[in-house]
Amino acid sequence: MFFCNNTDIQFNAGGCNFHAVNLIRSKIKRDIPLHNHGINCYEIHFISEGLGTLNVEGTDYSVTPGTLFVTGPLTEHEQLTDPTNPMEEWCIYLRADCNETEKYDDIILKFLSEKFWIGQDEQELLPLFQRLFSELDNRFVGYRMMAGLLISEIIVGTARNYINASVSMGEIFGCASERMSIIIEEYFLYEYRSATLEDLSKRLGLSPRQTQRMIEKYYSSSFSEKKNRARMSAAQLMLSDTSLGLSEISDKLGYSSQEYFNAAFKKYYGISPGRFRKRLT
Q1: Is the pLDDT of residue 192 over 80?
Q2: Looking at residues 108-117, what average pLDDT do you find?
Q3: Which residue(s) pair with 47 in the sheet?
Q4: Beta sheet of 77-81, edge-to-edge order
Q5: At what angle do helices 181-190 and 223-239 cross, to 10 degrees?
Q6: Threshold 0.70, pTM exceeds
Q7: Chain-wide mean pLDDT for the chain?
Q8: In which region does residue 147 sit, left (phi positive, over 0), alpha (psi from -120 to 50) or beta (all else)?
Q9: Which helix (DSSP H) or strand (DSSP E) does residue 28 occupy?
């Protein structure tokens, strides 16, 4: 596994300033719960090996070797890996500074306009990902500049895939963005059990009120709503694992009792956890 977070590789592609904040190459051995990214934030995913399912806003897509998909601002998605043949993923998390968009090259506007896209890569992007991660791994002289150039090529190649295929949903988003959005997303994705507004505020270096306002602005929900959504998404995945009892799931999610978990789950999904699990079998 290669994980390079908060690196902030800055580069310009077609008139737009980008920040590559997270770069990950890994085997996905555990399902990634439902989550989304902030305004003007994009993730480029390339699957080189393995099988799985991508769920985007309620729709399932099969993932096979050679699958390329991009999840843009506010797009809710989860990744379900095949435990017998886990996905090998190359992932770039980007934030775009959307200023003076009228000056951007058409290919960059095309990239930024997609809320979600999935298809088979036809632009031979894997060698670019391999060179990119080799630069980051070895830290050759000038590696940050080279990384920016390689990511620019990946962005252009990704947008060319859009143009040559039809499975897409487009939407241009506003220009305000915060680098701290990645901290917020990772916090809810991995720490939903014990998440508190005060703890997140400390990590961001903001007051609780400022943090609440940021979440409302970029995710159109409150802290408690985002935490509850993260918990419920994780609960769905855990309920599919029949080796976990309901009380154990309740504890893993941070509820004080199984009864409280049952009530929260039923309120959110309109069905009890037990009945939900029976429907899966």
Answers
A1: yes
A2: 91
A3: 89
A4: 32-35, 77-81, 52-56, 59-63
A5: 40
A6: no
A7: 88
A8: alpha
A9: strand 16-28
